[in-house]
């Protein structure tokens, strides 16, 4: 399955689901059953590639501001939620994370997470063969792009998000080098973090 077909499946489900992630998931599974076992495996491969593409510093910073965190399962579930909004929405937010300020939400830290997406191809594969698919998305050691160095970087890159949700509690106005080292350790930059939990 190529990426064009992957996004076609997602976008068709988005259009038919009426805003329900549960219904969207059901529609994706139904389509993957029709695609066959090879289609399920191909969808999973493309999904994991697109999830990895979501590990960029600008999106990490946006996730910090809205209260999701910078890594671990919560961040991966946020990227999955973003994918589940469709191809155009996914790429728009990657290009301009401030566009998230236009989304209606009461609690993005709870509502903007969709871990079920990861398991949909496996569910469809099990329907077809009786066997689940192996595999789980890998978290890269370091996000792509320009790192967020200090509080000024957040203010400069995310003015609309900060106007709505406030500045993240990552750097204070009087941050010191130790604070920065602690944060960067979440992505392999040192410190005592064992890498298993990147959430702030």
List its traits.
single chain; 200 residues; mainly alpha; 57% helix
Radius of gyration: 18 Å
Give unreliable regions as ranges. Answer: 173-185, 187-200
Rounded average pLDDT? 88
- Biggest β-sheet, characterized? none
- Structural class estimated from helices and strands: mainly alpha
**Count of DSSP strands:** 0
Strand-residue proportion: under 5%
Fraction of helical residues: 55-70%
Total DSSP helices: 10
How far is the N terminus from the C terminus? 36 Å
Task: Estimate the global geometry from the Cα principal axes.
Answer: elongated
Secondary-structure element series: HHHHHHHHHH
What would your notes on this structure say?
The chain is 57% helix and 0% strand. With 200 residues, the chain is an all-alpha fold.
Chain-wise SSE layout:
Elements: H1 3-17, H2 21-53, H3 57-65, H4 72-83, H5 87-95, H6 108-111, H7 120-129, H8 151-157, H9 159-165, H10 177-184
Helix pairs in contact: 1-2, 2-7
What is the structure about, briefly put?
By secondary structure, the chain is mostly helical.
């Amino acid at each position: 399955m190529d990426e064009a077909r992957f996004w076609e499946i997602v976008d068709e489900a988005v259009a038919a689901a009426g805003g329900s992630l549960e219904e969207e998931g059901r529609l994706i599974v139904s389509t993957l059953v029709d695609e066959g076992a090879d289609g399920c495996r191909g969808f999973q491969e493309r999904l994991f590639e697109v999830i990895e593409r979501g590990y960029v510093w600008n999106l990490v910073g946006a996730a910090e501001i809205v209260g999701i965190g910078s890594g671990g399962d919560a961040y991966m579930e946020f990227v999955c939620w973003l994918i589940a909004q469709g191809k155009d929405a996914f790429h728009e937010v990657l290009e301009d994370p401030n566009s998230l300020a236009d989304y209606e939400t009461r609690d993005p830290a709870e509502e903007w997470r969709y871990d079920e997406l990861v398991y949909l191809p496996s569910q469809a594969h099990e329907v077809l063969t009786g066997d689940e698919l192996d595999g789980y998305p890998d978290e890269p050691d370091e996000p792509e792009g320009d790192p967020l160095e200090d509080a000024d970087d957040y203010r400069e890159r995310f003015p609309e998000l900060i106007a709505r949700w406030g500045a993240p509690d990552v750097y204070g106005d009087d941050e010191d080098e130790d604070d920065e080292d602690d944060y960067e350790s979440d992505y392999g930059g040192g410190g005592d973090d064992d890498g298993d939990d990147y959430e702030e």
